[in-house]
Specification:
With 318 residues, the chain is of the alpha/beta class. 42% of the residues lie in helices and 14% in strands. The protein is built from ten helices and twelve strands. The strands form four sheets. A six-stranded parallel sheet has the order 2-1-3-4-5-10, sandwiched between helices. The chain has a two-stranded parallel ribbon with strand order 6-9. The longest helix has 22 residues.
């Protein structure tokens, strides 16, 4: 399945993160023995010197670029400049330095936030340039989308083998549950578990609940990234998703049912919903390198809730 990577040296930026840890594990199971993970405390990828040292120390033949500065709607609204600059500068410098270092393949992991705010559902990769992204996460989404442009330009001018995959919203065990920076599923799980454990009669929830999202379990996402690294060739972006959407209201009700919370929900319509709808056309991934998601949403939520219940009192759950 991923034998093309066996015996090759692979550098995974962000390899200590939520998705990165699972990608590194899958690479190991695929027979990759030369895995190098440049940790941020040792290599500041926002600085060219840190990028150059990482490439010199890791000597990778394949680079999988997962490192990113990310967060939910609140974090994106509070840090638009930081999210744009740090995500753009990391990727731009890393790709240029990788080209100069003779890296054979560069895998950029983009974001569904790159899609226009109003995109026909399911999102087709061909619609990626049909409008401006949703405002609350546009700086982050555009910074990551520039790496698609860079990869295509480098392929055309230099013959550089850069590929680009766009995962939809991820979730699963080991996610970031910090209320200040977490995405929607871990934020809601923590809020509802805490309300259940305290016996709170109500839970406040952002928005109207009408927005929809598609969620990809982290292990499925990691399998998709590793498959793409082994099999995907060509300049076109490729979605990684499930092909199924759920409203935020249905998501909250599903979490409440699994947790056993029976209080009421207080929807705060003064808070933003974000992009109105989000669901991907996943046919290109299936046809290009045989990827389809396997984890059911209900099972994935249960695994994630169980993990949080087991780790919620840890000083550093991740």
């Amino acid at each position: 399945m991923t034998g093309a990577l066996a015996g090759r040296r692979v550098m995974v930026t962000g390899g200590g993160g939520f998705l990165g840890r699972v990608v590194v594990d899958r690479l190991g199971r695929a027979g990759v023995t030369g895995i190098f993970v440049p940790r941020s405390r040792d290599y500041d990828l926002r600085e060219r010197s840190g990028v150059d040292r990482a490439l010199a120390d890791g000597r990778p033949e394949v680079v999988i670029h997962l490192a990113a500065v990310v967060g939910g709607i609140g974090a994106n609204r509070e840090n638009p400049g930081r999210f744009f600059y740090e995500n753009a500068i990391m990727g731009i410098q890393l790709m240029e330095a990788s080209r100069l270092a003779g890296v054979a393949k560069f895998v950029t992991v983009g974001t569904v936030c790159a899609y226009p705010k109003f995109t026909p559902v399911p999102f087709s990769e061909d619609a990626l340039w049909d409008g401006y992204p949703e405002e609350t996460n546009a700086p982050y989404g555009l910074a990551k989308k520039m790496l698609l442009v860079q990869g295509q330009a480098y392929r055309e001018q230099y013959g550089f083998n850069a590929i680009y995959v766009l995962p939809v919203n991820l979730y699963g065990p080991g996610d970031n549950f910090d209320p200040a920076s977490s995405h929607v599923i871990p934020a809601l799980i923590r809020k509802i578990v805490d309300a259940h454990d305290r016996g709170d009669p109500t839970v406040p929830v952002w928005g109207t609940g009408s927005a929809s999202r598609e969620f990809l379990y982290v292990d499925d996402a990691a399998r998709g990234v590793v498959l793409a690294a082994a099999r995907l060739e060509g300049p076109e972006p490729v979605n990684l998703g499930v092909g199924q959407e759920t409203t935020i209201r249905a998501l909250v009700e599903q979490i409440c049912a699994i947790v056993g919370y029976q209080g009421s929900l207080e929807w705060d319509a003064t808070k933003p919903d974000g992009q109105p709808r989000r669901a991907l056309d996943t046919s290109r991934a299936r046809e290009s390198f045989g990827f389809t998601a396997r984890m059911s949403f209900d099972d994935g939520l249960r695994h994630t809730i169980d993990w949080w219940r087991a780790h919620q009192h840890d000083p550093d759950p991740r």
